[in-house]
Design a protein that fits this description.
With about 210 residues, this protein is α/β, with parallel strands linked by helices. It has a single domain, classed as Maf protein, CATH 3.90.950.10. Strands 1, 2, 3, 4, 5, 6 and 7 form a seven-stranded mixed β-sheet that branches. Strand 1, helix 1 and strand 2 form a beta-alpha-beta unit.
Length: about 210
């Protein structure tokens, strides 16, 4: 059975690598949206709204596609949102605030059928319990991995795993930016089951 082509609404190499694990052919394009939070907007609502807006931003250019939008917001238990740090100094400061605390990651996901506007929306929640980290540990970690484009200032797929005391959630892929379990459920609900449609040639070799 034929299905519309898939489009990942992201230029993130991390999300691209994750989606390739489903072994389905897909294209990528970068959406241009304003990611400024609304005043007093809860992190879960922000992540979901931005995921949906990313998908919608590409619908006109890709009218025959199923478009995958995703966005992640990290938040301390105090309610403080942790954005992408951008540089060494801000990454160190974020990790100092996260040390010994729990950071909750909200990963919004939208699957949009550009042809008719149908959509499925989900927010995956994941809790990262940080170890008590010394300044020297944090400085060394940031120097090695330079996680400047990562919400929360760590790379889960790299050395970032050593920062945690424990992890709590359904899908660890959501920490990297794309909840594959939820996405698989969405695709299957619309008749595209990766277990039946997967092709090794569609995977990225890492």
């Amino acid at each position: 059975m034929e299905h519309p082509p898939l489009l990942l609404a992201s230029s993130s190499p991390y999300r691209k690598a994750l989606l390739s694990r489903l072994a389905l052919p897909f294209e990528t394009a970068s959406p241009d949206i304003d990611e400024t939070p609304y005043e007093s907007e809860p992190p879960e609502e922000l992540a979901t709204r931005l995921a949906e807006q990313k998908a919608e931003a590409l619908a006109q250019s890709y009218p025959a596609h199923w478009i995958i939008g995703s966005d992640q917001v990290a938040s301390l238990s105090s309610g403080e949102t942790l954005s992408k740090p951008g540089d060494h100094e801000h990454a160190v400061a974020q990790l100092m605030r996260s040390s010994g605390r729990t950071v909750t990651f909200y990963t919004g996901l939208c699957l949009l059928n550009a042809a008719n506007g149908d959509r499925q929306i989900h927010c995956e929640t994941f809790h990262a319990h940080f170890r008590h980290l010394s300044t020297a540990e944090i400085e060394h970690y940031v120097t090695i991995e330079q996680p400047f484009d990562c919400a929360g200032s760590f790379k889960m797929e790299g050395l970032g795993i050593v920062l945690f005391e424990s992890l709590e959630g359904r899908d660890p892929n959501s920490l990297i930016g794309l909840p594959l379990i939820a996405l698989t459920n969405m695709l299957t609900r619309w008749g595209l089951n990766p277990l039946l449609a997967a092709s090794p040639s569609a995977q990225i070799t890492l």
